[in-house]
Amino acid sequence: MLDYVRYYVHRFFYKIFHLKKEPNKTIAVAHRGASGYAPENTFAAFDLAIDMKADYLELDVRMTKDGLLAVIHDETIDRTTNGSGLVKNFTYEELKQFDAGAWFHRKFSGEKIPLLCDVLKKYRGKINFLIEVKEPKKQFGIVERLAKELIEKGDQQLNVVVQSFDTAFLQEFHSVLPSISLGVLIGYRHGAITEEHLQQYAAFATYINPNKALVTPKLVYMIHQSGMKIMPYTARDIHDIQHLMAMNVDGIITDYPDYLTNLPKSPSYSKRSRIR
Length: 276
What we know:
The chain has helices spanning 2-18, 43-51, 92-95, 116-123, 142-152, 167-176, 195-201, 217-225, 238-246, 257-261; strands at residues 27-31, 56-63, 69-71, 128-133, 160-164, 181-186, 207-210, 229-230, 251-254. The chain is of the alpha/beta class.
């Protein structure tokens, strides 16, 4: 009986103190699509992310031998296809011959490595895009190629963020296409992120996207004070997501976007709660 009374007392005061608070608006970023459920960087993973109400598709791009932008994470096709070799050594017509889904599960057999232009065309107006450029120093002409792709698809109408670990690339891209928001990726080995770092990044970037292990309440505060936003990577369980949300991050990059979009809309939650 006592627990019953306590429950209703708690609910009464919760409603009083949270009545005017807005629902949670943490941005759900589907890491390589809903890659916890479908083969990464494929239309299957992207379609599922849309179904799960993700806000952004995060995807990776690399240049092919014929100068097109293929959506693939690794430098080689070995891990995520039934082929072998460097992405840059294949034309896109050659890359299309490989299966990019069966490695994950046989039900995804027949999935192909997409082109960035096809992804933008298919999902434009349905979701936003977070495009990571992999190892830009190894990809001659990547700045011009990506800028041309986005301009042709209508960069002013697309909601796109381009991100990279390479700040020199980001600065060059900003000088070529300043209308596109940029994100600085920061790995765990970077160490402490100082105010001096943030002042430098704020000159060209809108987002700071660090490894989740680097995120602290102080870092989130510093980033917000610098006029930027933070979307850490890569959350793979509900506890990570709740921990990051408690620190007031702006978005979360996750393999499981439904973990975030299915969270109760209440601004308050228990750290012990789980999604079944």
